[in-house]
Amino acid sequence: xxxxxxxxxxxxxxxxxxxxxxxxxxxxxxxxxxxxxxxxxxxxxxxxxxxxxxxxxxxxxxxxxxxxxxxxxxxxxxxxxxxxxxxxxxxxxxxxxxxxxxxxxxxxxxxxxxxxxxxxxxxxxxxxxxxxxxxxxxxxxxxxxxxxxxxxxxxxxxxxxxxxxxxxxxxxxxxxxxxxxxxxxxxxxxxxxxxxxxxxxxxxxxxxxxxxxxxxxxxxxxxxxxxxxxxxxxxxxxxxxxxxxxxxxxxxxxxxxxxxxxxxxxxxxxxxxxxxxxxxxxxxxxxxxxxxxxxxxx
Amino acid sequence: xxxxxxxxxxxxxxxxxxxxxxxxxxxxxxxxxxxxxxxxxxxxxxxxxxxxxxxxxxxxxxxxxxxxxxxxxxxxxxxxxxxxxxxxxxxxxxxxxxxxxxxxxxxxxxxxxxxxxxxxxxxxxxxxxxxxxxxxxxxxxxxxxxxxxxxxxxxxxxxxxxxxxxxxxxxxxxxxxxxxxxxxxxxxxxxxxxxxxxxxxxxxxxxxxxxxxxxxxxxxxxxxxxxxxxxxxxxxxxxxxxxxxxxxxxxxxxxxxxxxxxxxxxxxxxxxxxxxxxxxxxxxxxxxxxxxxxxxxxxxxxxxxxxxxxxxxxxxxxxxxxxxxxxxxxxxxxxxxxxxxxxxxxxxxxxxxxxxxxxxxxxxxxxxxxxxxx
Lengths: 298, 374
Description:
Chain A is of the alpha/beta class and 298 residues long. Chain A has twelve helices and eight strands.
């Protein structure tokens, strides 16, 4: 995928389409190239740890696979973490104990989102810590994900000074630099997910003045049957297996139509596909298979 | 009638809760449709900007007020009204109603901090959803109001976010920081001044000032805001308010649904049941590919029979997983109703499709029927 050499990969998309799985697979694909990878998710829930068969984030990066670390960013605690980093210890302690942070971050336009994306940015090669070759940001769904991307610019406009404002401008510049940041939308080949992906692209390229670099279409069913075979099945006597095959066939055809619609609506954006798997939670082998497919994708 | 229909009997408010992407909007609309078919006058509020409800109901873009949905229906039907929540507009309306005078209203609406708060960030979406819910319930125009909650990663946000917003509006935290004897005073007067100066320098000089100005503007509305919050809380605590947890049958989703039921109950809300969406029906005859292939070969020829058997086996693998997920939920949740919606009837494009989901929720169609008819 076009994301190969980026410092930051932002994974967004509609809720429930498999963003976390795709972020994990992209992480493995990057680690296969010998890069040190951090997968950062902005949420209280630790989805990425779960994808790698582990539970519960600790607030610090933890290793989930060879060359892949994972970090859960809690937007509510991002300001506290930032202040501890920036202020003398005693002052930071007092402020931390005052429980002022969550409401204050909620008040300042884009501050919670800025500090969340800032934590991820800080761990890229552009940040102070330069701890990872690539940071993959598993962003929240839809509008919340877009809010995250728009936050640095929003904040830079509202705040009229201070180091955070300077950092916001730096993060914004990095987000707009296609050589360093890739924005990937995950979708499924279904009407609503395609609609939302098209809307995400429009919002990115409209008000945010950013670019969508790649689309990953998850859960693509196997190709439909030949038309003659499908017709033969419709003529055959009722049987649960035939019902299954026909249902899957209709679903596969509908998916192909939605995929084609997505490609038309997002012309110019490379589209990679991942197959629908008929098992429950993805195991390690499945995740590695996905990683291979994403590496091989245009 | 299904067990879920029983636990929804007499409900005045139905809140659909669940993770993003599980089909909450469709289930909300189907529940609303079912309640309307039962003779009630029902309004359904959806918050989702992707206009899923509009798709499901086959209506055009909805306004910020409920619109009547044509059920094309029988005399026993009640009414179904649907709306898509516009968080910004709802918040603006609320400010308009609560502001003591026009000057205050204009000052607040133009304030950049307000404009931030009134869009998707900071719990305002959840707050406005509650405000709208409260308006529709107290308008007296509906027997039942169904609320589809916002797609957030934390499904409990709908409950907690409004309180967080109110806490901010009341300026509790900022006061903690500034008042004599507050947190900063403990480092001594000089220390407090230093800490504040540092905070201001870090955040951008005017930001704290902006917040203070905004809190000043909004202070006249605080009493009304707080009263409303308490009223909404009372509405949620009312025994006629019921939550329905929506999930898909993957094991991660089912674990989360179970957790949600516990959280909702701990928060004092009544849970009416769980809806497991997109379930594959189990073929009681089994799906061993060799046997299915042998059975179908005389009719379809060997090659096609093999492909059919393979596909049936895929889906039955999912069906077994789904069945065990549903079983697990039923075992864990005791006598709480667990309704299922078949995957093959979960994709809704029109009112007829929605009615098929409704019939599954209200128990007027059985899974075996769905197995036979795609």
